[in-house]
Design goal:
Blueprint lengths: L2 H35 L4 E5 L2 H14 L11 E3 L4 H10 L7 H7 L5 E5 L6 H12 L3 E6 L12 E4 L5 H23 L1
Parallel strand pairs: 1-2, 1-3, 3-4, 4-5
Amino acid sequence: MDYQNIIAELKETAEEFFITKSSLFEKTLSVIIESLRAGRKILTFGNGGSAAQAQHFAAELVNKFLDIRPAIRAISLTTDTSSLTSIANDTSFDYVFSRQIEALGEEGDVALALSTSGNSSNVIEAVKVAKEMKIITVAFTGKGGGKLASLTDFLLDVPSESTPRIQEVHLLLLHLLALEIEKKIV
């Protein structure tokens, strides 16, 4: 396998993101920090690999990223299997995140959605409910943002159509958010 080409593609994708989206990333970071300083929380969610990244990000805020410090309020909506399965069974998988947003979200919170395509119906439904509740919406997607592009307050779309490269850059962005949040909140 030609690892050098994969590494070069990842580097190029990350660099292109920061060339075109660095000011939007900084603005998003500022809004998230402002929300957390106001006593609000982050609700994060996604499917598959994005679900794993949502859990990873929430854990880094609740526990620690680099430094031991007071916990930061974050909840991954992908971890409560009883809620996920009862909602999916009793209504539809489309509502597994939106129902949790209804139950746990408050005006001024941040809903951080991860979807490489930007077209996941359950993520879209959650963002719609969050907007209705005056929750700040942030979407991490692939190139163009899919259907989420027109729904979210802050669209951080990675300039790629390759799911692995999109997810790798999402992880980088989440780590950078965690780093800056940790430095500026405590």
